[in-house]
Amino acid sequence: MRSDPMIEIENLSIKLGGLPRVDDFSLSVPKGAFHGLLGPNGAGKTTVLRALYRAQKPDNGIVRINGKPLSTWSQAAWMRTVGALVQDGGSLQGLTIRDVVEIGMMNLPLSAGERDARIAEALQIAGLAEMAQAEAALVSGGERQKTHIAQILARAPEVYILDEPSNHLDLCYQILLLDEIKRRGKTVIATFHDLTLAARYCDTMTLMRGGRHIVTGTPEDVLTQDNMAEVFRVKGQLENGMMRIVSAIT
Ligand SMILES: Nc1ncnc2c1ncn2[C@@H]1O[C@H](COP(=O)(O)OP(=O)(O)OP(=O)(O)O)[C@@H](O)[C@H]1O
Question: Does residue 213 contact residue 26 with C-beta atoms inside 8 Å?
Answer without folding.
Answer: yes
